[in-house]
Amino acid sequence: MADRHISLDRVLTRAWTRMVQILFRPFSIERWLMLGFCCWMLSLSGDISTILNIGSNALSHDAADTASHAPADKLAALDNVLNGTDGSFLQRLGTELQWEPAAVQGWSLFIGIAAPLIVILLVVCYWLYCRFEFVFLDDLMRDSTEIRKPWNEFRSIGNSYFAGSLLVTAALFLFNLLFFFLAGSVILDWLKECGAAREWLAFGASRVYSLLFLGGAWFLISLVAGIYIWFFYFLLVPIMYRDRVGFSEGLRRMNALFRRRFWICLLFWLMMLVILFGFGICLLIGYVLTCCLLGFLLGIPYVRAVILLPYWTFLRLSGVELLEELDPLPAGQP
């Protein structure tokens, strides 16, 4: 039997039509507020990360201000920090930056306590994100605004998605850490040589080639891995929801779809990039037309989730319609 014709235009059209029907026909402020709450939970980990980035930037500015009082002989200081044997690396760094020993110990203690707490907070927020993925999807599929019922019904599937995707995220983090270590070791060896020689030495062609190779390999692998993980949202979650399967089985079925419909999936990814770019342009126009009032409202997390509810609904339904287009259920099966 010939393969069924796959139409991405049909996917996007049906997703848009269902979004309009759910949110605007009829319009219900209660529905928007409840579904907006789900979207807020989905973006909670991103909001926490933004807050942490702002804090880290503030700390880095403070460190830069302190570093401005470092000794004039930067190369001698560099040699002492990297090649010295007097005390630990942090002690030598604190001495060259004129940090008080008590301040170094205080910051070390603070980081040692804060870092595990931050990691725990991010993991909890990510767990909420994974659980609300299925709450939000179930509400859209059933045209409902319930939270408790889908929260309990999809507990095992949501937890499976959390555990599996967290392992993938950890593996990706270790991969980036490995490349950072390899590239950093090349630069660190050069800085050690510069400090020991008291002059800025030529970086060397071999080091340049090494960094180019590492950077190119990192970019290609990250691009492939990023596209693959991107489909967790658009295919894996709908597969797990529709078929009521765990992460590993859902991943196996998603990989099977990739093998059969690789070019269709790649084209869908490119089309969604265009749509996301167009959405960004529309937001920019909205900022200008409202004299940045829209930007102020979008800065409030829950309000942003409610305002952008059509956007999040369209994206989620696009994944559902893509799955239906690539792997339709047999006739008569719900």
From TrEMBL:
| Transmembrane helix listed as a keyword | yes
Does Membrane appear among the keywords?
yes
Q: Which spans are transmembrane here? A: 32-52, 107-129, 161-188, 208-241, 262-287, 293-314
Q: Which residues, by range, are in coiled-coil regions?
A: none
Alphabetically ordered keywords of this record: Membrane, Transmembrane, Transmembrane helix
Q: What is this protein called?
A: DUF4013 domain-containing protein
Origin species: Victivallis lenta
